[in-house]
Amino acid sequence: xxxxxxxxxxxxxxxxxxxxxxxxxxxxxxxxxxxxxxxxxxxxxxxxxxxxxxxxxxxxxxxxxxxxxxxxxxxxxxxxxxxxxxxxxxxxxxxxxxxxxxxxxxxxxxxxxxxxxxxxxxxxxxxxxxxxxxxxxxxxxxxxxxxxxxxxxxxxxxxxxxxxxxxxxxxxxxxxxxxxxxxxxxxxxxxxxxxxxxxxxxxxxxxxxxxxxxxxxxxxxxxxxxxxxxxxxxxxxxxxxxxxxxxxxxxxxxxxxxxxxxxxxxxxxxxxxxxxxxxxxxxxxxxxxxxxxxxxxxxxxxxxxxxxxxxxxxxxxxxxxxxxxxxxxxxxxxxxxxxxxxxxxxxxxxxxxxxxxxxxxxxxxxxxxxxxxxx
Length: 375
What we know:
Layout: E1 2-6, H1 11-22, E2 26-33, H2 51-64, E3 68-72, H3 74-90, H4 97-116, E4 121-123, E5 128-133, E6 136-141, H5 158-161, E7 164-165, H6 173-182, H7 204-212, E8 217-220, E9 226-230, E10 257-262, E11 267-271, E12 278-288, E13 296-302, E14 310-316, E15 322-331, E16 339-344, E17 347-359, E18 368-369
Parallel strand pairs: 1-2, 1-4, 2-3, 4-7, 8-11
Antiparallel strand pairs: 5-6, 8-9, 10-11, 12-15, 12-17, 13-14, 13-16, 14-15, 16-17, 17-18
GO cellular component, one term: cytoplasm
Enzyme class: transferase
Domain tRNA-specific 2-thiouridylase MnmA-like central: 207-271
């Protein structure tokens, strides 16, 4: 097959490309330039998409003896990922930009261009597996649970999975680094990137403040009493405990957590941990890694990239535009804007964007309802 290997400049994508070559595919490497003003160098594990990363990807391609190109997708990335990220926080939600990048950039813009150029598939260094199932191609968790990235790939459709290859899905991370060293790839000991790639210093609140400006408001308790102040609701997320800027402790002396975020009246509501318990959620814009399930689905749901999956029952709306997830036991830290990814054992069934949550018990904050998601 003719395979386009996405090469970020890190060890995972370099080894993935090497395995594609070794498997006999006709491989071409491509580095995605996602920043219109990239930094020269990374700072440890901060960020990515720097000039240094581009050069590391090119050197790896040279070692493998494959053609290499740089595709400038900075404008598309800003519109589909960065601006979406800012808009979601401005609306009081907590987005995951990695899912949006996979949906809009790597497996939409890149895959579409690759197919138009005559490639058969796109290969990446994600830790996940694509296997042939009885109904077609299926997305499954990686063998290494500590590195599994199926959550951020839960937005892929059946068509996209048919043209996706993840060569690292059956490998543990330590094995990949050792393999890179054996292959003579200079990125063998390069640190992984752990932060949002377009916020290299890791200061998300500072980045959002630069985009949205100061929008001071009140921090209140569940009775509406003012207990503090803030510079912008975008600096908070449901379940947050630290950095609340509360002037005095709760009457019972226990920590308080963010229960609700209301950008319209610039108000952040805080309260006891037990008020975080969520029994159900509503998801919108579902995407299925295969046919949409009919009727009620018993599965596992995961709402954080490295969170524990929990047993749940899912009901899809009649027009398939939304779904309801009911947890078998209450969950904490579920925030509108996050993705909920559904699993049948190791197989990814699909995903949706969390639009609203329903407390497991009656709460003075009420249902955490939000408006239509910005697209």
